[in-house]
Design goal:
alpha/beta, Rossmann fold, 292 residues, 2 domains, elongated, 8-stranded mixed sheet, binds NADP nicotinamide-adenine-dinucleotide phosphate, single chain, 48% helix, 13% strand
Length: 292
């Protein structure tokens, strides 16, 4: 019988996570589940920060360390700190070990791998690796199917790609110059969408539907809207008075919203966007009343 070629043995690098916040926690748990050894969870020295790092370290079989005591033995170090702290956290850890041969990643959507320049100058290969997903305390979204935008040095980008594939995420390359626009897009699809939902609750209150009831009653239509968007795209998911060209109804909405000026501004901005980008009837009549 012909001998089968031996399967290529891919050794998973050990990973250190800096920052046990929303993303760091989800990522460490997902990496642990995917069979990665998490070496250290690194935090600031504040007691609350150390407690969080210790808790997460316990869950993933890592050791917890503060920035000044970190050993950085792992081959991959993933910075999951706020954008404004990436460069300073990297600088604080730059003397902790020899960075030659190591890979340093950060998770910012807006910033490039240039934030890790200090570690590159010490021999590391660096990359930014941003999951297009929302992470909030108390929710651990699955990473399977999540797109990850990757940019940076070849070695680090390839290492990041392999890790993302092990997490069953979808890696894709992003140019340095496109990162800010990319992150602005991300802002629209989650944080600003959430702001729109918050505004919708204020409008619901004007109709006497308050708190949890507004959310519960909105969920079926919200879910169907997303289902339609996924299956049909934006143009074929668009219904309502603008699609029908119903000027009188839109006038009534604008009148209700005089009591909620921020929601009125959002309504007008989005309705104008709809007139420009989506199928609408009676555009001229609608444009006239939406100028106000
Ligand atoms: N959340 C998301 O939806 C999301 C999605 C994609 C990408 N990201 C990216 O992920 C990164 C982290 O965001 P996040 O939402 O997870 O933030 P977060 O929940 O605020 O967590 C940040 C963590 O970093 C720690 N930290 C702050 N400064 C530090 C420093 N100098 N050294 C070590 N640890 C430090 C904080 O610890 P203490 O304050 O307790 O000390 C906290 O645990 C950002 O680059 C963000 O752009 C986030």
């Amino acid at each position: 019988m012909p001998e089968r070629p031996a399967a290529r043995r891919v050794v998973k690098p050990h990973i250190t996570i800096v920052g046990a916040g929303s993303l760091g926690t989800s990522l460490a748990l997902a990496l642990h589940t995917a069979g990665y050894a998490i070496d250290e969870i690194i935090s600031r020295a504040r007691p609350a920060s150390v407690r969080k790092a210790r808790r997460l370290a316990m869950e993933v079989g890592a050791s917890a360390a503060t920035v000044t005591r970190a050993r950085i033995r792992a081959g991959v170090v993933w910075f999951c700190v706020p954008d404004g702290a990436i460069a300073s956290a990297a600088a604080s850890l730059s003397g902790a070990n020899d960075w030659h041969g190591k890979v340093a990643l950060h998770a910012s959507g807006a910033l490039t791998s240039g934030e890790l320049a200090e570690l590159r100058s010490r021999g590391a290969s660096v990359s930014s690796v941003h999951p297009l997903m929302t992470f909030v305390p108390g929710s651990r979204p699955p990473l399977a199917g999540v797109p990850f935008a990757i940019e940076g040095d070849r070695k680090a980008a390839l290492a990041a790609r392999a890790i993302v594939l092990d997490l069953r995420g979808r890696p894709f390359p992003i140019g340095k110059r496109n990162k800010q626009a990319y992150h602005t897009w991300g802002m629209f699809v989650s944080p600003l969408l959430t702001a729109l939902l918050a505004a919708s609750e204020r409008v619901a209150a004007a109709a006497g539907v308050r708190g949890g009831a507004a959310k519960q009653r909105a969920l079926p239509i919200l879910r169907q809207t997303l289902t339609n968007y996924a299956a049909l795209g934006a143009a074929h998911s668009f219904s309502g008075p603008i699609a029908r060209g119903d000027v009188e109804t839109v006038k009534k909405h604008l009148s209700v919203l005089r009591a909620i000026p921020e929601a009125r501004n959002m309504y007008i901005a989005l309705a104008r966007t709809a007139l420009r980008d989506l199928p609408a009837k009676n555009r001229v009549g609608l444009e006239k009343i939406l100028k106000k």
